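Weekly structure sync, notes
Attendees: PL (lead), two postdocs, one rotation student
Agenda item 3: pending single-chain targets
PL asked that the sequence for the first pending target be pasted directly into the notes so everyone works from the same version. It is reproduced below exactly as submitted, 165 residues in total.
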Amino acid sequence: MTEGEERDGYRRAARLGANLALQDLLLQGLEVVADVERLRGTLNVDSPDPAIRWGRSEGREQLRFDIHYSLYVRLAQDAGDEDPVFTLQAQLALNYECPETLEVSDEDALAFGTQSVLFSSYPYFRELVHTMTSRTGLPPLVLGTLRLPIPHRGEAEDADAVGPG
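Predicted structure, written out during the meeting:
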């Protein structure tokens, strides 16, 4: 993604976000699989790769974003082993109040989803991972925080720049 496309994404997300209010965040599904017999040794954690879908509720002033996180933990010494010792898959739904007259394009929703929705849901996913790993006998895993890319020098002075600052 080029810097211009990234800035355009920030702008789209900010424009849409200015018109939305988070109403609720729901855990729609959870699947946890732990192979407790193999939980010995150094663990490798695959970075969660969220998938985001969105839609507008008919007859309601609401946008819904579904985000699916998958986390896989493998033993370091089993580098060739494809089977993870711990798997967590979580489906979260975020409902946003949205004016019925607001036009929402796929590009705007995608930009908002990959930035605002992701950042709104990730702390809940982090807590879920920590709690579930603790309860299955793994050392409690603490995932890192998400961060927006830092703007390059000179972008902060750009009056149209939207993003971290």
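Discussion points:
- The radius of gyration is 19 Å.
- The first strand starts at residue 21 and ends at 34.
Action: rotation student to compare against the earlier draft before next sync.
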